[in-house]
Every structure is written in structure tokens, then in C-alpha cells.
Amino acid sequence: MTGVEAPRLRLAGVVLAGAASLDLAVASGELVAIVGWDSSDLLGVVAGLVRPESGIVTIDGVPIDDRIGAADRGVVLMPQSGALAMLLTAYENVLLPLLGRPGGDVADSDPPARARRALELVGLADSADHLVEELSGGQQQRVAIARTLAARPRVLLADQVTTDLDPANRTRVLDLLRDLAADGAAVLLASDDPAVIEACDRSVSI
Q: How far apart are CA 54 and CA 6, in angstroms?
């Protein structure tokens, strides 16, 4: 034993359509920017939503073959659209994914408190009971980020999540992603924003 911690996320020989083979290791605690036109597809591969032409993805050494397997290993995908239920409140959108999921990193004796706390962290405590359709695009993006924070992912895949945010909220979100990494998550952030890329530990171009 060397005492060196194995990477939380590893991609070995992963090939997307028309792209070169990619090897990538992301440790627990790292915030890594993914830059390139097919960065969203790469996040889809890690999330188990897209099958690569070849290669393998592992989380904590366990191969990921599909979305269920990825979710079971604590992979959370935060899409650019947010994928929120527009006729539910901000609070309900954050709370519902926490219910009925015992075990793992998402177990909690008080999911409602965790949902409220996540909304506080993104500055939306006062909007918790508003319908999502009543919120601005930037507020909706922050609801999606709150939902991710509440899930406590082992691997977070964030797809252009700062696009609709003003500079102050962009900084707030980047700080929250950094906090997730500090808590042990491996964070992949797809972005073409130079300021966002600069804020990450390192960047990978694909």
C-alpha cells in the first residue's frame, strides 16, 4: 500500500463521437473545468446517460454502465436547463428528490430542514414557497443548484450552470461548488466562461 488515495472519478480511454480518446482522473475534493464543444456529452457519459464509443468510467473503482448505476454511486447531474417542475414551489423541487431514498450519502433524518438550508445557501430563502414558473431564469438556476447541494453528491456534474447568473450570484455558486468539493465531492464543471474556468483547480479541454 502506498497510502495514495485513488481518484474518486476515473475515465479510461473514453471516446466520444469524432473525438480523441480521453483519460481523466478527478480526486475527491477537486473542482475541474471541462472545456469544449462536446463537454455536455462527456458529462452525460459520466452520468450514465450517454454511451461512449469505447472506454470505461469508474466511481471509487466501480464501473458505471448506466444511469441507475451512476446514481447508486452518488453521481448527480445538474443540467443547464435545471430540469425543474415548473408547477411546484422552489422548496418542493429541492425536497422531493430527498424523500424515499434511504442509505448512502443522501440519508437524513430531516429532509425538509436540509431543503430549506440549501435554499438559504443560494439566497432564495424568501422565495422557497414561490412556484418555479414565477421565478426568473437566474433564480430557477439557483433552485437547481440548491437541489444539488441538498443531495450531497459524491460526484457532481455541472453543465454550464452559471450561464444565467449575474456576477455576484456566479461567485456565490462557485463558492458553493468549492464547498461541495471541500466536503469530499469530485466536481466536473462544463463551462466556456474564462472567469469560471480560472476559478477551478484545473481545466481539461476536449
A: 22
Note the pLDDT tens digit of each residue in 19-34: 789 999 999 999 999 9
How far apart are alpha carbons 132 and 93 in whole angstroms? 8
Sheet containing strand 22-26, strands side by side: 22-26, 9-15, 54-59, 62-63
For 65-122, what is each residue's pLDDT tens digit? 899 999 999 999 988 777 899 999 999 999 998 886 544 444 456 899 999 999 999 9
- Cα gap 37→192, rounded to integer Å: 9
What residue type is 34 in one-letter code?
I
Helix (H, G, I), strand (E, B) or coil at 95: helix
The rounded Cα 167 to chain-centroid distance in angstroms is 20
Q: How far apart are CA 2 and CA 93, in angstroms?
A: 44
Element (H, E) at 159: strand 155-159
**pTM assigned to the model:** 0.84
Sequential DSSP letters for 16-54:
-TTS--EEEEE-TT-EEEEESTTHHHHHHHHTTSS--SE
First to last CA, the chain: 33
Residue extents of the structural domains in the chain:
9-205
Fold of 9-205: Rossmann fold (3.40.50)
The values of phi and psi at residue 150, to 5°, are: -65, -30
